[in-house]
């Protein structure tokens, strides 16, 4: 097949490059260094670098929700689900709202984190959170839990709609043990969640989330990093909590604050809905955070010492017409950080910017760190995926781009004719992307444009396709699908 020959050509080129760099090593690095390597997909992005690339093969190239072709199972969610599933330890975890009331003792509008069995989609347990009294200013009605959880060593971490970072036991109470230090759960049945610790970002660091706290945690060593979502109030002028940090590091064992940084101060354009990323860049373990003033910042992961900062907007841009915020997640590949800017989907379409940033630089690297700048993109909230020298990204106007990751040269653009909130996944020689019309397009993983298939999921797709154990997991607004080639 044509796509395979292109793929092999790229592989050969990559091996050759690796041999040169490694000074004669005969063992090439794995093609997709970002694959978790376990068959699981335990966090947003799969790995802390957030590059959504998998080595998995045998993934479905087509399916049909109506006939059930290649649909392994379907689980019912609430009515809105903005986070993404993660898969670990034989379970699938996802945030949603409480419009599917599973427990009459927990009624009304709530954020919900649900756990399902990976093999057959059976519901296992849930944690629910009532809404903040401030209402839409901090906790928009019916938006549910929008954080993608992270699972590590039997513990699950996420941010609730109340701006609380939680650590849960993935077994819930099904193991007949109440794990602590927190042991005061009111509900301890087999369908209830077992909380280990929680960290309230409103109480502890004064965060004032704009509309919704949503950050998806990332962990490195003993530290968990999360954005506070601190932002403006409903006036869209006032910043009630200008001294609250943008990013915090919490001890993943104790749930105690280790470091915080507030470089943004009172310059928040709107909200802070990006999510941090971790990777080793030029020998330094960095956490990279895209923040509410439209700047991307890199920190020494252990200490929070700020290493560099990069303005993602042209200096003459003006909020909100041309100056953008950062909602996408930064992706680390080698020494580079890739990210595009955009705006809250409620603001509609506009011009965007996509960058490759040299994260070995220090200080204000807006000038010195811009390896390339792609301007032929609309506002985007989509996180890039980089594989075999190709970079994929969609924008909110529905244009799906493939660029040369090295140079920023555009190879192709495909119009999906719908708004895109989701991010591309590269796996098995294919690139998967869902859109607001509920369509999932599969493109060939190639610098030559080729549409392989397009399927409709029966409801808007805001989430990203997730691969685990030869199966794809994907949610529309109210259902979670497991899709596998039979
Ligand atoms: Ca337990
Ligand atoms: Ca407990």
Please describe what this structure looks like.
This protein has 2 helices and 34 strands. By secondary structure, the chain is mainly beta. The strands form 8 sheets. The protein has a 5-stranded mixed β-sheet with strand order 1-28-29-30-31, with no helix packed on it. The protein has a 5-stranded mixed β-sheet with strand order 15-16-17-18-22, with no helix packed on it. A 4-stranded antiparallel β-sheet has the order 2-34-33-32, with no helix packed on it. It is globular. One calcium ion binds next to strand 10.
Describe the secondary-structure layout.
Elements: H1 2-21, E1 53-54, E2 71-76, E3 86-88, E4 91-97, E5 110-117, E6 123-130, E7 150-152, E8 155-159, E9 164-169, E10 194-200, H2 201-205, E11 218-220, E12 223-227, E13 247-251, E14 257-261, E15 277-281, E16 284-290, E17 295-300, E18 306-311, E19 331-333, E20 336-340, E21 354-358, E22 363-364, E23 370-374, E24 385-387, E25 390-394, E26 399-404, E27 410-415, E28 425-427, E29 430-434, E30 439-444, E31 451-456, E32 466-468, E33 471-475, E34 479-483
Parallel strand pairs: 1-28, 18-22
Antiparallel strand pairs: 2-34, 3-4, 4-5, 5-6, 7-8, 8-9, 9-10, 11-12, 12-13, 13-14, 15-16, 16-17, 17-18, 19-20, 20-21, 21-23, 24-25, 25-26, 26-27, 28-29, 29-30, 30-31, 32-33, 33-34
Bound molecules: calcium ion (2 copies).
The site of one calcium ion has 9 residues, from strand 10.
């Amino acid at each position: 097949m044509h796509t395979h020959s292109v793929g092999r050509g790229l592989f050969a080129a990559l091996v050759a490059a690796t041999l040169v760099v490694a000074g004669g090593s005969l063992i090439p690095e794995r093609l997709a260094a970002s694959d978790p390597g376990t068959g699981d997909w335990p966090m947003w992005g799969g790995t802390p670098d957030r590059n959504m690339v998998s080595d998995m093969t045998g993934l479905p190239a087509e399916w049909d929700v109506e006939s059930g072709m290649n649909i392994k199972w379907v689980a019912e969610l609430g009515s809105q689900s903005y986070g993404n599933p993660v898969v670990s330890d034989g379970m699938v975890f996802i945030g949603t709202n409480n419009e599917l009331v599973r427990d009459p003792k927990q009624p009304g509008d709530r954020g919900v984190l649900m756990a399902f069995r990976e093999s057959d989609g059976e519901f296992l347990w849930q944690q629910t959170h009532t809404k903040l009294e401030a209402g839409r200013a901090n906790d928009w009605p019916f938006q549910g839990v929008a954080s993608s959880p992270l699972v590590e060593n039997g513990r699950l971490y996420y941010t609730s709609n109340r701006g609380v970072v939680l650590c849960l036991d993935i077994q819930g109470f099904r193991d007949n043990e109440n794990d602590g230090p927190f042991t005061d759960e009111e509900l301890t049945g087999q369908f209830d969640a077992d909380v280990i610790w929680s960290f309230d970002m409103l109480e502890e660091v004064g965060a004032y989330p704009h509309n919704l706290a949503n950050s998806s945690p990332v962990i490195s060593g003993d530290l968990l990093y999360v954005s506070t979502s601190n932002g403006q109030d409903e006036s869209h002028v006032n910043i009630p909590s200008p001294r609250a940090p943008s990013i915090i590091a919490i001890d993943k064992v104790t749930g105690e604050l280790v470091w915080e940084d507030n470089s943004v101060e009172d310059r928040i354009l709107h909200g802070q809905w990006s999510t941090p990323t971790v990777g080793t860049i030029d020998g330094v373990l960095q956490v990279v955070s895209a923040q509410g003033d439209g700047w991307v910042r890199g920190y020494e992961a252990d200490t929070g010492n700020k290493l560099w900062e990069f303005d993602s907007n042209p200096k003459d841009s003006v909020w909100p017409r041309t100056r953008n915020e950062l909602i996408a997640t930064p992706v680390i590949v080698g020494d580079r950080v890739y990210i595009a800017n955009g705006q809250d989907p409620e603001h509609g379409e506009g011009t965007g910017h996509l960058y490759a940033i040299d994260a070995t630089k220090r200080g204000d690297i807006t000038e010195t760190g811009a390896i390339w700048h792609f301007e032929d993109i609309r506002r985007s909230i989509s996180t890039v995926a980089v594989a075999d020298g190709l970079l994929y990204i969609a924008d909110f106007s529905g244009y799906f781009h493939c660029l040369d990751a090295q140079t920023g040269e555009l190879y192709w653009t495909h119009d999906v004719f719908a708004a895109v909130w989701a991010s591309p996944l590269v796996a098995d020689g294919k690139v998967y992307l869902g859109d607001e019309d509920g369509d999932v397009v599969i493109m060939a993983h190639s610098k030559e444009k080729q549409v392989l298939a397009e399927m409709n999921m029966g409801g808007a797709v805001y989430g990203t396709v997730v691969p685990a154990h030869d199966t794809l997991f994907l949610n529309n607004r109210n259902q979670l699908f497991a899709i596998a080639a039979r």
